[in-house]
Amino acid sequence: MIRKMTEDDLERVLQIEEQCFYSNWNRQQYLYELNENPYSNLYVYLYNGILVGYFDLWIIFERAEIATIAVDPLFQGKNIGREMMQYLEKLARDNGCETISLEVRASNERAKNLYQSCGFIFVNLKPSYYKTKDGFEDGLFLMKGI
Fold this sequence. Notes:
By secondary structure, the chain is an alpha+beta fold. The protein contains four helices and seven strands; from the N terminus they run E-H-H-E-E-E-H-E-H-E-E. The chain has a seven-stranded mixed sheet with strand order 1-2-3-4-5-7-6. The longest helix has 15 residues.
């Protein structure tokens, strides 16, 4: 089940955030997204009542950007990411968006395979876009017409 994120979800979201990302968003950033960012659309994914995934889709006029998306590593491989991608694409389309975009780590093969299978194409390279424990890693900018 997918539903809108609330402040009550933040503890669990932050746990998943820390498991999935080296440079992760903090509570203040999520509070801003929830309460102040007019473009933000935060949702959570519940698996048997347990919050196991989330995403933030920015809808900015005729375009949508996936600001963040994550699935608890213990629940990856269960098509949860694909379901969230289908949901956010429908959300973007229903809001009149013409394109949807995202950035992904160049080394994140699982995510890249998911996005490519959802019809996203490579647009450009963002050198040293992501901070890692060992320095920086390139990001890939992907886009899809909807």
